[in-house]
Design brief:
By secondary structure, this protein is α/β, with parallel strands linked by helices. The chain is 39% helix and 17% strand. The strands form 4 sheets. The protein has a 7-stranded mixed sheet with strand order 13-12-11-10-9-8-15. Helix 8 crosses helix 14 and helix 11 crosses helix 12.
């Protein structure tokens, strides 16, 4: 495979390690580091970071002045550099280095059999239990930009102005900071990120006190968010002196605010954690974040030197796996507590949007079509809550069941039950006579169940709702959702249209969970049983006649594909700008055992064709609140020509 594959997928496996430390015993530490380097390499890591001063230990005290210790450090670095070539891995280790009579606390990047660069620590803590200024000089005192390590015979770039990047994969780049550098007001990682580093490695020796663990993790997680970067933290652990303080040996990796991997505290043996940094995703997030780009007012990128580091051969081929789980429901958190919180927040956003529109228009009447399906159920729950919070008379909510030729008894019953249990007068108008008359008027065959037959029903329903809203001096609340907008699965100038679309920012997979959450919140009420049955009802527009048994004959997911797949595609196509090849690859991993490759490929093709061909509907969509990080409003998140061609995207 060519390097193009790596660039296309953008997945880089990285590691953070905390070896068992032998205090002031450099040869023993070289062996321990080498062991974890080997383990990291065997598991496919491209870069592995070790703790601050990992060759000697952070708690050596005045032993840092010892010539023997400093000489052994240089020997150890040469040995580890040689090992990187054998193992095909890049390693970042911590060590004290004597440079022009001053000792510096440094991170040394090793790869391809040699030392690639040296980054001195910028901020030296000198309060409470730390006295680093006693032994070390800060980075801004470094008098040279290159140094020689022992008898290596070549110069090595040194300084805080270095970005390490792969020659053939320039977006795969990283910077290094050390421990306290992260805790200051303006960490070096901020400038490193602006200069292009998509990954940050922190070599640390932070001691453990009660309450510090969570603070430290939050600090790393939030710095990864501020930098729009992957952030790997390697902390010193067992083996450091416990004369006055204790080290926990924690390692963790975060990416743009999300913790990807974390170790346990106080491990008996060495710690090694892995995560897959998605530099392709990070690059997309940066180029679409105006504030991030505007932060570089001083032209930071121009101030940094570039040093090339090698990637393992495995990173220039199609990845065999995704390290870590790829969520098959990216819009629905797996954790129950987080999921409930997301459902509540989504519902509140919808309610707030409608409240503002009601207040602005001074409207006390709304009209909504209630089908007994998921979308209209969520919409009427939002309407009822908005009226309650505004103190409006619920008699102003006018819900209509509009059964047609394809309406099943199950959904008709649920629609009427739902309105009744919400305290809304349930009104029913059959559209069958009007649709039959219209089809006769246009000369449509009675036994032809084509698009004209289906869309005539949707437009008849919309006409009734619009006219009823006019009669009451109110407006129509739309029920279509984000997933349907992405697929264009709506009738233009039919259910596509309303005066305010409360669901337009909510994907189908999340709607089901919001309704289930609402039902659980009201489990003692009769409405919970109705909501539970609605959640269990197959998704259908019910535009074709039911079966002889009165069951739903037309199931949406049989026609356009499973919504869990389409929401997965939507999340990665619009949210992450991933290529179809990468989306297909990730979907294979996420839905392994659920859908085979042929099925995923088929529905991804359908998604892409429909997404491009149905943009004209999104270009004319009504107002509605953005609820999640992805939106398709032509006035907000998504601006796309209606006649863009999909050919390139379909070639995957």
């Amino acid at each position: 495979m060519s390097n193009e594959i790596s660039i296309d997928f953008g997945l880089v496996k990285i590691a953070a390690a905390s070896p068992v430390l032998h205090l002031a015993n450099v040869p023993a530490n070289v062996r321990e580091i080498g062991t974890l380097m080997s383990r990291a390499a065997k598991q496919g890591a491209a870069v592995v970071a070790f703790p601050e001063l990992s060759l000697t230990g952070h708690s050596c005290g005045d032993l840092f002045y010892q010539t023997e210790l400093l000489r052994e450090v240089e020997k150890g670095l040469l040995a580890l550099a040689k090992l990187t070539a054998e193992l095909d891995v890049t390693a970042i280790v911590g060590a004290p280095l004597l440079i022009r009579q001053h000792i510096y606390n440094c991170a040394i990047v090793l790869g391809g059999g040699k030392a690639l660069g040296v980054v001195p620590k910028s901020h030296l803590p000198n309060t409470h239990e730390f006295y680093e200024k006693r032994w070390f000089a800060p980075a801004d005192r470094l008098p040279v930009s290159e140094i020689e390590l022992g008898a290596c015979g070549y110069s090595v770039p040194a300084g805080t102005d270095i970005i390490f990047e792969n020659e053939f994969f320039r977006s795969c780049s990283f910077g290094v900071e050390l421990c306290e550098d992260l805790w200051v007001t303006e960490p070096p990682s901020g400038r490193l990120a602006l200069a292009g580093a998509s990954m940050i490695f922190n070599l640390s020796a932070s001691d453990e006190v009660v309450g510090k663990t969570q603070f430290r993790r939050d600090l790393v997680r939030m710095q990864s968010a501020r930098c729009l970067a992957a952030y790997a933290y390697a902390g010193a652990g067992m083996g450091e002196s416990t004369t006055d303080i204790v080290y926990a040996g924690e390692c963790f990796i975060a990416q743009n605010g999300e913790m990807l991997a974390a170790s346990e505290k106080f491990p008996a043996a060495g710690t090694l954690v892995f995560a897959q940094a998605d530099v392709d995703l990070l690059a997309h997030q940066r180029r679409t974040n105006a504030e991030f780009l505007a932060s570089d007012t001083a032209g930071t990128r121009r101030e940094f030197r570039r040093v090339h580091f090698p990637l393992p051969a495995s990173h220039t081929e199609l990845p065999a796996e995704v390290f870590g789980r790829v969520s098959c429901t990216p819009f629905v958190p797996g954790d129950e507590v987080v999921r409930e919180r997301h459902c509540r927040e989504a519902f509140d956003i919808q309610v707030a949007g409608l409240m503002r529109r009601l207040s602005h228009t001074r409207t006390k009447n709304v009209v909504i079509g209630v089908s007994g399906g998921l979308d209209s159920t969520l919409a009427i729950l939002v309407v009822k809550e908005a009226f309650a919070r505004l103190g409006l008379d619920p008699a102003g909510i006018h819900g209509f069941s509009l059964p047609g030729p394809g309406t099943s008894e199950r959904t008709r019953r649920n629609a009427l039950d739902l309105m009744t249990r919400l305290g809304i007068e349930a009104k029913e108008i059959s559209i069958v006579p009007a649709v039959e008359q219209h089809l006769r008027d246009i000369g449509h065959p009675a036994d032809c169940f084509d698009a004209a037959y289906e869309n005539a029903q949707a437009r008849e329903r919309t006409q009734i709702l619009m006219d009823m809203a006019n009669r009451r001096g109110g407006f129509v609340v739309g029920t279509g959702d984000l997933s349907e907008a992405a697929l264009g699965w709506c009738t233009f100038n039919g259910d596509h249209m309303s005066m305010y679309h409360v669901n337009i920012g909510v994907p189908k997979t999340l709607i089901r969970h919001i309704i289930a959450w609402f039902a659980a919140e009201r489990r003692s009420e009769e409405i919970a049983r109705t909501l539970a049955d609605i959640v269990d009802t197959p998704i259908s527009p019910e535009l074709k006649p039911p079966t002889a048994e009165g069951e739903i004959a037309q199931k949406t997911e049989d026609l356009v594909g499973p919504y869990e797949l389409h929401d997965f595609f939507l999340f990665h196509f619009c949210g992450n700008a991933f290529t179809p090849r990468k989306i297909f690859f990730l979907a294979e991993k996420a839905f392994a055992g659920v859908y085979d490759s042929e099925t995923i490929r088929k529905w991804l093709g359908v998604f892409l064709r429909r997404f491009f061909s149905q943009q004209f509907k999104r270009s004319a969509c009504p107002d509605g609140p953005k609820v999640i990080s992805i939106g398709l409003s032509p006035r907000g998140d998504w601006r796309m020509p209606s006649d863009a061609e999909s050919a390139m995207w379909l070639d995957f």
